[in-house]
Amino acid sequence: MALEFSINKLPQRVQFLLFTLVVLGFCSIFYVYYIKPIRSEVDQLQSEIQALRIDVQRGQIVQARLPEFKEEIRRQQEKLATLREILPEEKETAEVIRKIQELAVASNLQIRAFTPQKTTRNDFYEDWPIVISLEGNYDNLARFFESVGAFTRIINVDNISITGIENNPARNRTLSAVCRATTFVFLESAEIS
CATH number, domain at 107? Predict the structure, then answer.
C-alpha cells in the first residue's frame, strides 16, 4: 500500500491555506535573512549620521568662535611677554647692570661696586642677589629705591646699610650705602625636574 499524496486532491480551501503558509514562510525567510539585516544596517547608519551632524554642529560653533579664540590667544601672548619681562628666563647680567646703572645715574648716585652673587634655586625660579655699593645723598638714594621699585623686572632691595661720609666737601655725596638687590629668573619646567 503506497501512500500517495497530491495537493490537487485536497479541497481548495486547504490548498489555499497551504499556499498561504508556504508564501508566508518564504516571506519570513526573506525578511529574516535579507530585509532585517538591511534595516539594522540602515538604523546603524542613521545613528552614525546623527552623531556626525552633532559633530558638525559643534565644529560650526567652534568655527564661529574662532576669531574670539584667536583674540584670546593674542591677549595671552601679550600677557606672557609682559610676565617674561617681569620674571625673565635668563639672568641677562649686562641688561640688569646697565639698567641699575642708568637708575643710579638718573638718581644722581655713584655706583662704587656691583657684585653679582650665586643664585639660589626655588620651586620654579631662582633668586639672583647682587650686592651694590652706592654713594650720594639721602634724597637721591630714596629716588633710586623708588625707581628700582617701579622697574619692569622684579627687583627686591634689602639688607640696606647706610653710613655717613665725613669730611667730604661735596653736598651730593653725604652717605655711602650698601644693599642687596635681588632679582629673579624663571625656570622652565625642564630645568625644574
Answer: 3.30.70.60
